[in-house]
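User: Show me sequence and structure for the first protein, then do the same for the second.

Assistant: Starting with the first protein.
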Amino acid sequence: MKIAICEDNLSDSRLLSGILMKYQAAQSLDFAICHFRDGNSMIKAAQSDHNIQIIFMDILMSTPSGLETARAIRNAGNTCHIIFTTESTDYYPESYEVHAQHYLVKPLTYERVCQALDRCRDSLLAAARCIKFTYNRVDFQVRVNDVRYIEVFKNTSYIHTDREYPVMASLDCLLERLDDSRFIRCHKSYAVNLSRVRKYENRQVVLDDGSTIPISRSNVTDFKERYGKYLTSRIMEGEL
């Protein structure tokens, strides 16, 4: 996992980096810290490096500003945790528009940075959880958060992330192993990750990579109920 600091003030960047290293040692965590001096380089990195899970962003950077940078990151579909840092509270309302996890007023202190990181910690640990499989005597592991959907064809299940993993296991067995409420069976041959659903219509869902997954008539009612509860929980948590 990586934590990014997007800050054009070198002194503030060094201060925050020192706080993060202290937190890392105190919590026995393993993460890398990467630095960016402008919004454009941060946007490019966020698009290509999915290991960046937290971004500390100065709102008052020169063009693009921190808010503009955050909007570009969100518009690209990235749901990483964004923690704004600023010398003013004037932009607090706008931070909600990009679903910021926290808002820190400078000068930063160890205690307040720790509070912001603690808010991110549980979801980050969940995001890092992996499950292991063996297929044709080859072992591999998949990060649960990366699974978009599971498809069953003949006697093989296929786990779809950015690539496809064949597994000799039933769909019920895989859902049990995933043990994550975001995954729901929507068809006898498909299960989807609700966090990857971008659109639902006409008894099918469209995922964030454009994949279209059918919903069987017998699963429609359950899917609508579960998806509605999922969206409600995200709204309550400030993620939508």
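Switching to the second protein now.
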Amino acid sequence: MTSRHDLHTQLERGVASLGLQLPAGAVERLLDYQALLARWNATYNLTAIRDPMEMVSRHLVDSLAILPYVQGQTLADLGTGPGLPGIPLAIAAPQRQVLLVDSNGKKVRFLREAIRSLKLDNVRAVQSRVEDVEGQFDCITARAFASLADMLAWGGHLMTREGVWLAMKGKHPEDELAGVPPGFEVRAIHTLAVPDVGGERHLVVLGRAGC
């Protein structure tokens, strides 16, 4: 049986290896989120990952790996599923307003329960298709959500003129780069070293062309 102490140690080690400084109490809130996700997952099958230690590395630490690239005061996490990377990023930066978007009703019910029970005052969740979401955001995040072409076609309207789009990918998305639609450009592709997560991890940073 994995103890909370074990999970705490694993998470702190991951945060340290990423070189991050989190606000006071953030590690405990992240573990509260993981515990809630594990409890709901037993009934609602929100994620294929069931091992608690693996949840810490593949969900929490993996989400936090992009924190240095997040900018601005508003963030929309598209196709967030059970809140990834949106909830870990919101806990790590409570001054930023975060919108979680998913079309799956049971996942959004979980998100609303997580927001309520974890007292995430800077977070709200909507059940919607990405193309129907309104507003504009300084930063957009999407984790294994769709191809770069589809992401920007559906949600490009949500990014402010100076905003950034952070697309989390596994292997280097060489075959997707040519599909980036007119009006947008790839600013950078970062290789992420995420502790205890096997396989490649990449972050594609996109913005509006000419901005």
